[in-house]
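Subject: Protein record for review, amino acid sequence with backbone structure tokens
Concerning: The relation between a protein's sequence and the shape of its backbone.
How to read it: Take the token row as a discrete description of the fold.
Enclosed: The protein record, placed directly beneath this head.
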Amino acid sequence: MSNLAQLAFLNTRISIYAGKLQPPGSLQPFIESADPVPSDYLEAIGLDLREQEHALSASALEQELMNALIEDAEYIMHAIPAVMRKLLFQWMQRFEMMNLKSLIRCKLTNCSSERARDFLLDIKGFGRLPLEQLLHAEDIDEFMRTLALRDAVLAQKIRAHIGGAEQLFMLEAAMDYHFYAGLLDSCEQLPGRERESVRRLIGRIIDQVNLVWILRYRIAYELQPPHTYFMLVRTGLQLDRHQLAQLAALSDFDAIRKRLPCEYGDCLRDAQSLQCVEFRIMRINLDYARRLLRQEQFHFVRALAYLYLRERQLQEVHQVIKGKLLGFSPQLIRQALEGEAA
């Protein structure tokens, strides 16, 4: 099958998948509902949890939702030309980074293997690390030796930041940097037209990550500007190296906001928290992904836009159902969905 024929098949597949995406805010009516699982909504997005409804734990729920995302990604993997598969695999590696972070936290805090397993997600064929070996490593030294056999570069970055549980945020930032650098490297291997469109979407996501990191490191953690800048992914879309260096030198939110491109600065006016900032920028990126889904035809970026939107949809389902399982108030659940106090 030619690349064009494969992309035509992919385009049809994504159009079918897009029918599972619901409008923004569509979960709101279920927050006040007495039904712990909004079955009608779940059916509309291609999920059926009725058999597990009465015995559904928070970890089982998370795995069920991950299975739905993995299933979509696997179908897309089979539908795209070979040159694009590396980037899709790397796109899904973020969940392996989540697993690895969970294991490292458990090793540094002496968490039992049984407890650590509860934090892990089965990502099927998108996993490449030996999680079972890492899980049963006797100590952090054996853990690092095992990891280095599979990914020496990642192991080296982690080893440079392992200093105890109190430095976990620096360790996790280094791992995130490794993930996004790998994503950008995979992007460079795409054909020209595909590379440009995918690069714009990834660049927007990196802008969001960098902005949140700057605010967290400079204002919340009070790190020095050089240290903050060093930890940023310096290849975003609108926030280039020069702008990031300028922003990292500031320690006041309003001063940072005024230096941002209008698209970001305007939407952050009156933002009251870091969570609020993150959600407002994310909503801009979600709107951009929706435009790609509507307007881009026969291009790989449409599939990535779908996965980005699908992941956020499943995250929101997770927040609502888990909040109900744990007995959270509707106000707290709504705040988790919107990033701002109700």
Remarks:
- The longest helix spans residues 192-220.
- Residues 55 and 103 are 26 Å apart (CA to CA).
- DSSP finds 18 helices and no strands in the chain.
